[in-house]
Structures are given as structure tokens and as C-alpha cells.
Amino acid sequence: MPPNLQHHDAWDQDGAGAADTVKTASRPFVHHVSHGQVELDGAYFLSLCAEEGEDGETVSDLVQEVLRRLPDPSVFYAGLTRVGCSLQTLELSKARRVMLTAPALFRAEDVPRVREIDSGVSSVRYTVTLEAGRALRGTQLTDAAALFGLDLRK
Questions:
Q1: Does residue 5 lie in a domain region?
Q2: Which end of the chain is more exposed for a tag (fewer CB within 10 A), N or C?
Q3: 152, part of any domain
Q4: CA 49 to CA 24: how far, in whole Å?
């Protein structure tokens, strides 16, 4: 889980022969991305929208839930390490966050992207607006989410 759900953070992980990116924002389906995050073959993109709210959960609560559900939490720990975060750091956050929309899972090829980059450019970041109608549904959603130990049918 990203340490600050308000600031369009990402957490990339590899697992089960696939890769995914988790993006959070305070506006539904609007995320900041780097070119590398949307150029992964066979990748998935999990879109979350949350804001601070007294009825929500702390990041630490969410992390404990993620750890409880994962069959192999080593991938999660590796993801935290990759973004320079630790469980101890996450426990310091007492702000509560409320989900504004249900999580939505997209195939990377359904995420808008810059198609061509001039030579000499080493890093590109931009804002994308995802089309809610392109989110995975039904068995496609169930099968893709299962790759990462997720159940998004709720």
C-alpha cells in the first residue's frame, strides 16, 4: 500500500508471472504515471480513489489486511522496499482514509499512454484519465485479480 493515498502514489510488484501497478488518487480514475509503468507487457493497473475521513481505515490497518490475504507476503514486502517504505513507517500514519469508489482493475493496454518518445529523453511522467467502462469485469476481473491474491468482487 502506498504511504500517502492522497498523492497519486504507485507501487509496482511482480508476481505469478505478471506485474501490476497500484495507483491511488483523490479523483476517480485520474492518475499520474511514468512511462515505464504503462509499458509493461501483460501488466495490470489497479485504480483506487480515497480521501481522508474519520470513518476510514489507517494505512496500517489496510496493510495488515493485505498481509492477511496474501498467500506469499514476500512480494508485498519487496514492493514496500522498492518504494523506500517499511511497515514501521506505515504504522506512524494515523490519518484515516475512505474509499470513494470501488477498486477497478485495468489491463495495461487499456491505460492511455505516450506512444513515442524522442531519443535522449530518459523519464516521462504524465496524467491519465481511465475510462471506467474499460475496467475488467466478471471472470476477466476474477481471473486477473487472483494472480495477485486479490478478490475484487465486493
A1: no
A2: C
A3: no
A4: 6
Residues 6+ apart with CB under 8 A from 34: 10, 123, 124, 125
The predicted model scores a pTM of 0.69
Asked if residue 95 is part of any domain, the answer here is yes
- Domain holding 88, by residue range, is 10-146
Cell of 32: 499520474
42: left (phi over 0), alpha (psi -120 to 50) or beta: left
Separation of alpha carbons 57 and 1, rounded Å: 12
Q: Cα separations (Å) of 133 from 29, 40, 73, 107, 129?
A: 11, 21, 31, 12, 12
Number of domains in the chain: 1
Is 1 among the domain residues? no
Q: Is the dihedral of CA 144, 147, 150, 154 positive or negative?
A: positive
